[in-house]
């Protein structure tokens, strides 16, 4: 009898609440709406094993613009709004890293579980001393070079390439003013004059002065992998075409 009394009270409360049906219907409509128009996640790009994977190396003190530039370029869809690439970040561990600018990035993968990469982008930081001497980091670059079709360095990322030895005998450029020291430290590299050269490509290796010129190295590789039409589409998508003709009214 007590159970029946509780049930009866519940029925009375619900029947006396004029909004109960409306609340139920609203909740159901909201759930249906979420299924149809998931505005929070519909533009997120899942990892698709069948797509080329672009790996962005990150470490403490990394210049975040060099990471963002590459993700900007390769993270955009094609004109049909189709995903063309997986873009992932890789750190030595899964612990968040702090960029030079003070933001915190959480790696998608570590050196141990990183998926097969089509291209590896090696960025820089203002203080590369510890990173150049990080044996695990250098070995990761060496190992990934065996499977990748492309390796790109920006700014002082050229020091990591030099330390790894993977681009010996190839042309490379670093940040403006850093070429002389790079050549002294790694005489097997063909270091280009960074006062004149912004970007250079030699075989599977390419490099830039870094910072905003990281967009150049990313866009160049995008064109090689997806064609000039995709590069033009991404430049328009990012308003880069407007920067070329920018003027103040």
Question: What is shown here, in short?
Answer:
With 249 residues, the protein is an alpha/beta fold.
Supply the key terms.
single chain, 249 residues, alpha/beta, Rossmann fold, seven-stranded mixed sheet, two-stranded antiparallel ribbon, 15% strand, disordered N terminus
How many helices in DSSP terms? 10
Rg, rounded, reads: 25 Å
Query: Residue-averaged pLDDT, rounded?
Result: 87
The major β-sheet equals: 7 strands, mixed
Class per helix and strand makeup: alpha/beta
Q: Oligomer, anyone?
A: single chain
How many angstroms does the end-to-end distance come to? 82 Å
CATH topology: Rossmann fold
The CATH class name reads Alpha Beta
The CATH architecture assignment turns out to be 3-Layer(aba) Sandwich
CATH-defined superfamily? Class I glutamine amidotransferase (GATase) domain
Instruction: Assess the beta-strand content as a share of residues.
Output: 15-25%
pLDDT < 50 stretches:
1-30
Globally, the shape reads globular
What would you note in describing this structure?
- With 249 residues, this protein is of the alpha/beta class.
- It has one domain (53-244): Rossmann fold (3-Layer(aba) Sandwich), CATH 3.40.50.
- The chain has 10 helices and 11 strands.
- It has a 7-stranded mixed sheet, with helices on both faces. It has a two-stranded antiparallel sheet with strand order 3-4.
- Helix 3 (64-74) runs parallel beside helix 8 (214-226), helix 5 packs across helix 6 and helix 8 (214-226) crosses helix 9.
């Amino acid at each position: 009898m007590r159970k029946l009394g509780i049930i009866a009270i519940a029925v009375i409360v619900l029947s006396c609440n004029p909004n109960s049906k409306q609340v139920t219907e609203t909740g159901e409509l909201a759930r249906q709406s979420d299924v149809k128009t998931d505005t929070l996640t519909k533009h997120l790009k899942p990892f698709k094993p069948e797509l080329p994977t672009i790996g962005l190396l990150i470490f403490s003190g990394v210049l975040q613009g060099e990471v963002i530039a590459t993700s900007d370029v390769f993270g955009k869809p094609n004109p049909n709004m189709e995903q063309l690439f997986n873009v992932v970040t890789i750190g030595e561990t899964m612990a968040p890293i702090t960029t030079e600018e003070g933001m915190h990035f959480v790696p998608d993968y570590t050196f141990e579980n990183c998926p097969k990469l089509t291209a590896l982008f090696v960025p820089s930081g203002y203080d590369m001393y510890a990173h150049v001497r990080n044996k695990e980091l250098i070995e990761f670059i060496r190992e990934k070079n065996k499977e990748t079709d492309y390796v790109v360095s920006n700014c002082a990322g050229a020091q990591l390439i030099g330390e790894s030895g993977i681009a010996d005998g190839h042309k490379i450029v670093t940040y403006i003013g850093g070429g002389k020291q790079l050549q002294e430290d790694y005489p097997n590299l063909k270091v280009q004059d960074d006062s004149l050269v912004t970007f250079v490509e030699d075989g599977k290796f390419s490099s830039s002065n870094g910072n905003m010129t990281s967009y150049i190295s990313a866009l160049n590789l995008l064109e090689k992998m997806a064609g000039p039409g995709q590069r033009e589409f991404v430049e328009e998508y990012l308003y880069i075409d407007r920067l070329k003709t920018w003027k103040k009214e």
